[in-house]
Amino acid sequence: MSERTDRLLRVLLPVVTVVAFFAVWTVYVDSAKVSAFILPPPLEIGYAFVRLVGDGGVWKHVLVTVEEAVAGFAIAVALGLVFGTLLAKLRLAEMALKPFIVALQLVPKIALVPLFILWFGFGIESKVVISAALAFFPIFANALIGFKSVDRGDRDLFISMQAKPLATFWLLDLPSALPVILTGAEVGIVLAIIGAIVGEFMGGNVGLGYLAVAKLQDLKVADLFAVILLLTLIGLTLYSLVAGLRRWLTPWHQAVDTII
Amino acid sequence: MPSPGSDIGLKAVAKTYMTRSGDAVHAVNRVDLDIARGEFVSLLGPSGCGKTTILRMIAGLEPPTSGEIVMRGEAVWQKGRRSAVATRDMAMMFQEARLLPWFNIEENIALPLRLRGEDEKSRLEKARSLCSTVGLSGFERARPSNLSGGMRQRAALARALGTEPQALLLDEPFGALDAMTRDQMNIELQRVCLARGVTVALVTHSIAEAVFLSDRIVALAPRPSRVVDIYTVPFERPRPVELQRSAAFQQLVGRIRDDILRAAA
Q: What gap in Å lies between CA B122 and CA B127, rounded to an integer?
């Protein structure tokens, strides 16, 4: 296969897959006479999506959900970095805290959502907390691994150059660990969005998670699908931003792109 | 010829590791050595003879189990901690170039100066001038990954020279290079060391390399690690590459090889 056809197929084939997916969907709901309340045909979802985006009312929901997810993600990054650094640098802190943090990770955090709403109310705060709780672990774990796997030979080099601990951190530890930390952040941003939506399912009267529940209660299933599509696009955008950040900040790192 | 005055001194230096099963492994057994100011000394031997451990103890990277190491009158190890004063005027080169991929070549070369608090303009100026010293002009802004192995070690040499060290500690820095590049690098190394009057301790397993570069050679044997003999190399420095083809050169290489093989047998 020539290089040109190869490149062409790389673009063309995924499009064919998507078109085929919707074609099968359309033919199925049509021929099996599936009720539009259960599974609307794709075209109807398309119209619902255009209506949803065209109606100015949706943007306040979008804004709230994005705000919750981004705030939760930011808190998770800050806490993940602080604890990751602390546990990587202080052996005693690692011994004391690591089993506890890992055990916390095993608590199904979705089950904590009602508790967070009890503590932080129906407003944006409880959703931010849920987002942060979900996004924390992958960022923390990757920071810990990243800082701990700094090359020993590079450490020797810094010792031989009489580097002070703080300079070693900024010029060696952080850049060494950054690709791994940002890979954790890519997972973290996806979890932060999930956290915000789940929080909105449970309580409150704003945000795309709330909107999804409201559409279901109105039995507007095509609109529900439109909200899901919108959420997917928001997720894709936020994920791409973080992945782009990794490529921009660590251009020397030749990692295979992560597939979530 | 070495100028008078000792630069690096080792007195009864030994290093013992404990294995997990509780056995003691004698990596270095009582080494006594004095390296004079401006002298080029090689630590030569097969792998496992403790030569790298000796160098790392001098560099302050590994504490000796017993004995004393002195750099210009200052103990390198004081109560089990490396002395910043004693090691300040040393620079080390490793088997790998160890250039940081997030810095370009001039930033890498300027790194030790940056760690000493030198401002950006002055340290990058020095780095550029060092680039030309080691033949890397035109590659100041290149990324380490775009350089060949030999060029990376040139950059590592430039980085080691940046702080104008009095002693260079070289741990097989050209071991991973092909033979032709290696010869070239050794000529370069000889030129730079003589021009700066720097004291050098070189770890190598190449007898010819040791003979070509050194004033004296400390030959070591493994299991148990010990000093076989210390040889004085009679040829005047700087030495031309052609010296390696001379009968006297080959004779000395042969003699050292025989001695080490006999000691290791």
A: 9
Residue in this structure with the two tokens 């790192």, named with its chain if needed: A253
Q: Are residues B52 and B144 in the same domain?
A: no
**For residues B128 and B140, is the Cβ–Cβ distance under 8 A?**
yes
Instruction: Residue A234: give its domain's CATH number.
Output: 1.10.3720.10
CB-based contact A154 B87, cutoff 8 Å: no
Let me know whether A218 and A106 are in one domain: yes
Q: Average pLDDT of each block of 10 consecutive residues along chain B (265 residues)?
A: 68 89 86 93 90 94 94 91 91 95 95 95 94 91 92 94 93 88 89 92 94 94 84 91 92 93 82
Closest CA to A36 of A50, A25, A23: A25
Give the number of domains in chain B: 2
Q: Say how many CB pairs under 8 Å bridge A and B.
A: 50
The predicted structure's pLDDT at residue A34 = 87
How much is the pLDDT for B17? Answer: 87
Q: Is A84 exposed, middle or buried (0-12, 13-18, 19+ CB in 10 A)?
A: buried
Please, which pLDDT band fits residue A259 given cuts at 50, 70 and 90? low
Asked if B199 and B243 sit in the same domain, the reply is yes
Over range A64-90, report the average pLDDT.
96
Are B115 and A160 a contacting pair at CB < 8 A?
no
Between chains, do B84 and A162 touch, taking CB under 8 Å as contact?
yes
What's the CA gap between B147 and B131, in Å, rounded? 13
Return the pLDDT at B18.
86
Considering only CB atoms, B115 lies closest to which of A153, A162, A253, namely A162
Asked if B197 and B175 touch (Cβ cutoff 8 Å), the reply is no
Distances (CA, A) of B125 to A40, B114, B141, B147: 68, 12, 13, 21
Q: Do A252 and B145 touch (CB under 8 A)?
A: yes
Task: Decide if A254 is inside a domain.
Answer: no
ipTM score? 0.91
Residue A222 confidence class, pLDDT cut points 50, 70, 90: very high
Structural domains counted in chain A: 2
